[in-house]
Amino acid sequence: MSNHPLPIKIIPCALLIACSACSPVPEKPIDKGMARINLDADVGNEVRAYRLDGELTKSIRFGDINPGAHQLQVRYHFEVPGGSASGGLLDGNFRTCIMEVSYANFEPGMQYLLKTERRGWKPAGWLYDQQTQEKIADAEEVRCGPGI
Question: Which of 11, 32, 82, 139 could staple 101 via S-S, CB 3.0–4.6 A?
Fold first, then answer.
C-alpha cells in the first residue's frame, strides 16, 4: 500500500482535464450563405452583442446573419482613468456604453470584426473586414451611463 493520498496515475489525468477546460471551443464553420460578426474589446474590457436590427439578442455574440444591410448594437463595458480609493466593491471606475454600427453590404461567407476600445472616458469602435483587415465602418456611441 502506498502512502500517497492519490495514485500517481490520477494526477496526470486530473491535470489534463483541468487544462482542457481552459482551451477555447473550436468555432463551427460559417455557412457560405451567411455572414459572421466577431467581437473584440481592448484588454481588460468587455464587449457583448446587444441588438441586431433593433431586436434584443439572446446571446453575448451575434449569430450568423443573412447578407445585406444590418444595424448592430453592442454593450461595451470598460475601465476609465482614475481609480477609486474606497477599497470596497466599487474599486476602479467602469463605464458601460451602447455602440452602434450600420453596414449595408454584409456578404455571404465573409467574417467581420467589430472592435471596441476606450479613448479616455469615451468609447470608440470600428467594423473591419476580418480577411483584409480593412476598416469598413465606424461605430457610434448611442448612450452611456448606469443601467445600460
Answer: 139
Tens of pLDDT along 66-92? 999 999 999 999 998 775 554 444 556
131 dihedral zone (left: phi>0; alpha: psi -120 to 50; beta): alpha
DSSP 8-state assignment for residue 133: T
CA-based end-to-end distance of the chain: 60
Q: Do 59 and 37 form a contact (C-beta atoms < 8 A)?
A: no
What the block records as the C-alpha cell of 114 is 467589430
Task: Residue 137: name the closest of 93, 71, 92, 82 by CA.
Answer: 71
Check: pTM over 0.85? Answer yes or no.
Answer: no
Cell reading at 138: 465606424
